[in-house]
User: Fold these one by one.
Assistant:
Number 1:
Amino acid sequence: MEDTLKHLKDITNKLSDLPTLPTVVSQITQLMQNPRTSAAEVGEAITTDQSLTSKTLKLVNSAFYGFPGRIKTITHAIVILGFTTVKNIVLTASILNVIGKTGKSKEFDQEAFWLHSVSTGAIAKVLAELYKHKISEEAFIGGLLHDLGKVIINHCVVDLFEEVLIYRDKHNCLLKDAEKGVLKVTHQEIGSWVAERWKLPSNLTAVIQYHHNPELAGDYKEITGLVHLADIFARALGSGSGGDNSIPIVSETIWNDMNFNSIDLPKFLERAEDEITKASIFLQAI
Ligand SMILES: [Fe+2]
Ligand SMILES: [Fe+2]
């Protein structure tokens, strides 16, 4: 018990040293709350951050968004893709920039981890489109960032994270069960603490908090369920690695709700692989 309290104290103390997101992220969120804000105003706010601007332009000009090489300025991107999409891209690029390379343990394959994350995002997007949910963009970002907590543990308390990895190897278990064994909390809770601190949108926070038990996600059960399934499919496809070799159990509620048996599996897998290839551009934002 004493150990648990000490661990939690260590973790929460270290979380306060976490980098913050660039101010431009909260600026554009604020600007977008005013319906009279113009594309030029949002464009101007984003372009004050040069590295974010070039990353955003690289992403909007990729095959993932369907206008390869044709968008020259942020304002132009807003006109073509809309405010929300550009805001989502800026938010995602900022988060990847802040945490993408911060993992410290040499025992954890970060490249494989981010491929797992991008693959989960791409598959969640395909699932959302398949089920005609109008949340494919959010599903992608949710998938991309669902395991945020793992990066945070690896950054903030690397010595404890390495204990988690030893526990995982000894018990041949999922990383989340090893976290529970060592830290008494998992990357779901730790990720959601950071998501709240960064004031991320509530659907994204729910995905981070409940992707292993989506039936608890309340109003966000739909998006969390999509990411839950996508995480499992990404593992089954062997696309990257979430940090363990096991495949978690599928939530029965979600499986039944989605009636997945009616899906044309070969066609789904083909689309998923195609989308993973397109989404790999996000690996360059890290
Ligand atoms: Fe996870
Ligand atoms: Fe995962």
Number 2:
Amino acid sequence: MEKSLRDRILVVDDERDIRTMLKIMLEKEGYTVETASGGLEALGKISQAFYPLVISDIKMPDLSGLDLLKEIQEKSPRSIVILITAYASNETAIEGMKHGAYDYITKPFQNDEIKVVIRNALEHQLLKEENLELKKKLTSSIEGLGIVGSSKPMRQLMDLIVRVSKTRTPILITGESGVGKEIIAKTIHHLQNPASPFVPVNCGGIPETLLESELFGYKRGAFTGATTDKAGLFETANGGILFLDEVGELPIPLQVKLLRVLQDQTFRRLGDNRDIRVDVQIISATNRNLEKEIAGKRFREDLFFRLNVLRIHVPPLRERKEDIPLLLEYFIRKFAEKYHSKPIKISSYILKELENYDFPGNVRELENMVERAVALQDSNIILPDVYKSQTIESIDTVALPFHTCEFPERGVNLPAILEEVEKAYLTEALNRCQGKKVDAANLLNMSFRSFRYKLEKHGLE
Ligand SMILES: Nc1ncnc2c1ncn2[C@@H]1O[C@H](COP(=O)(O)OP(=O)(O)OP(=O)(O)O)[C@@H](O)[C@H]1O
Ligand SMILES: [Mg+2]
């Protein structure tokens, strides 16, 4: 985008002094500034021209800043909005952030702060535009495979996947639960020959004897109930890929048998003495640490060497947080299609919260969050705070600090009581963390931003 276009700011405020003051200050910084005296006038301007950044007061007579924000998101989704708020109505500003405002500034203005906020906002906007461009370029190569990611580890992984798909050697895919091991196996299959069989087997979910007959098949009469000859999955996978999922859970006796197949390239159906030769590529996956399993004698080292000819390790999502925005967008689109609904918008506020979250369930956890949010059409629901409080049961709700509820006949002032309780916890958390706000916010299971806001509210700063 041209520089002149990039730096256009629309200032919206019903107070003329504020408009003028901001205009003068920002023009001095080299920005092109236009003003509007209310939400409706602003909407008119936005329909005429693109403003990467809109700074808007919240309280205005004709159209509130929050409503303007919503309109802008509909009509000019590439614009970013910063809200102006008087100190007392900070709550609304936070509300605005949840609904997609980039940030807020408080009156009376601190000029230096404003300059920083605005510079960051415009940089953020530019980055967003560049990401969009980049994504357009990447979509074909990455999304075509159903694997989304732009982080360095993911790009390296993509390269590796393309390279290994040219061979038929055994591949071991490792990584925590939900990182995408299965989707990688399927992608390799797709790149190799989508018309060939892809046969997944869950080595952990089936009883040992059943698994054995599933894998190798059996001859009629091999055991009670074997009334006909049956081909095993090895035969079904002939010419294609046998995907041994959760291979770390394979019982030792079956590990021995599998090893034999890998060594000889032949096997026998149960109860049969005929050797069967198949051309099957083995891709196995595990979230266990097989080296440790070997040390603990739960996994055979000789089998490990056979399976681990090529290794693909998928890092956990928390080690590639750059992938979060792209995955978010991908899943939002995917589920909007599935539910025939509008794609939801994720505010930068919530994105930041997500990027601070560790995702113990990795991509699957993110995917589930998005599915729920899209199904409920609620872009707010995916706050990790909500998830934290569900998973960290022990610390989310301690018993109330009162043994009994004092509840006089004439009633109580509950809001005031809650304020007092909140203030007491904030103070205690700060004390315990020697005043370190980030730690204190963590201790209270709150985002840093809302913690800071609450400190301000209680005059604790
Ligand atoms: N990079 C990615 N791009 C798009 N979708 C992904 C990506 N990684 C994972 N997913 C999705 O996340 C979900 C979990 O992935 P998958 O089942 O492949 O994980 P896994 O590593 O096999 O997990 P587990 O060890 O629990 O079996 C799937 O729905 C998958 O499509
Ligand atoms: Mg899996």
